[in-house]
Amino acid sequence: MGRVLRINAGNYIYHVLNRANARLRIFDNDKDYQLFEKILEEARARYDMRLLAYCIMPNHWHFVVHPRKDGDLSRFMGWLTLTHTQRWHAIKKTTGQGHIYQGRYKSFLCQNDDYFLVLARYVERNALKANLVSKAESWKWGSAYRRKHGTFEQKKLLTSWPAQRPENYMIWLNQPQSKAEENAIEKSIQRGNPYGDKNWAGDIIKKFNLEATVKPRGRPIKGS
After folding, report:
1. Which of 48, 55, 146, 194 lies 20 to 30 angstroms, CA to CA, from 123?
2. Residue 224 lies in a domain
3. Residue 105 counted as domain residue
4. Number of domains in the chain
5. Domain carrying residue 186
6. Sheet containing 60-65, strands listed edge to edge, beginning at the edge strand earlier in sequence
7. CATH of the domain at 108
8. Which residues are 20's β-sheet partners?
9. Residue 218 and residue 6: Cα distance in Å, rounded?
10. Are 174 and 128 contacting, i.e. CB atoms less than 8 angstroms apart?
11. What pLDDT does residue 192 have?
12. Is residue 47 part of a domain?
């Protein structure tokens, strides 16, 4: 089976994620998280990537990014994952022992409006949903913490949002997300669907010729 077509167009919002090989832990301690965040900062600067939200979990991570030009997303992600793999193996003294990621990163287009806000909230409350913290902004390895508690220099990693953040965002962030919202995002991940309203998603599928790669509703997803 051929690879799923990857969209690499500039000036669209993407939900990007990757997981550890066999879903094992990548990040065992603060130094592991700090290493990844340092590489993330280097990658953002190198490719002028707009990073809107992120959350680094023990065995996976989520980004919401807004590349400026065609090709920027693949260049940014390729450099980041390769550099992280090399430095991770060097520190762990496991160079030559294989991949740390399960495969290529996954990326999904997101509509630039309330759907973006729901997606950003989903990403930023990932650690809260996993019961790793009692408040989303308490998880040190994500954009909610950096935005709330970070230094001026740390906040430079993050880019202004293309949609206005609600005034009560932190309260909203820490409230349970609806099952409908979670299911819609998770279906986007499992099926490769653009995340947005029906008309927008249909237009995106046609524009980028995704009919053959987006999985139809109702088909079971193996290994999800």
Report:
1. 48
2. no
3. yes
4. 1
5. 13-205
6. 51-56, 60-65, 13-19, 106-110
7. 3.30.70.1290
8. 101
9. 22
10. yes
11. 87
12. yes
pLDDT digits (tens, 9 = 90+) for 181-190: 999 999 999 9
User: Side chain identity at 171, as an amino acid letter?
Assistant: I
DSSP state of 68: S
Q: How far is CA 109 from CA 8, 21, 94, 196, 203, in A?
A: 10, 24, 35, 8, 12
Is 217 part of a structural domain of the chain?
Answer: no
Q: What is the pLDDT of residues 34-57, one digit of tens each?
A: 999 999 999 999 999 999 999 999
Go through 182-220 and write b for each residue having 16 or more CB atoms within 10 A of its CB, e for each that does not.
eebbebbbbbbbbbbeeebbeebbeebebeebbeeeeee
What's the whole-model pTM score?
0.92
Residue whose C-alpha is closest to residue 30's, from 136, 115, 130, 141: 141
Helix (H, G, I), strand (E, B) or coil at 89: helix
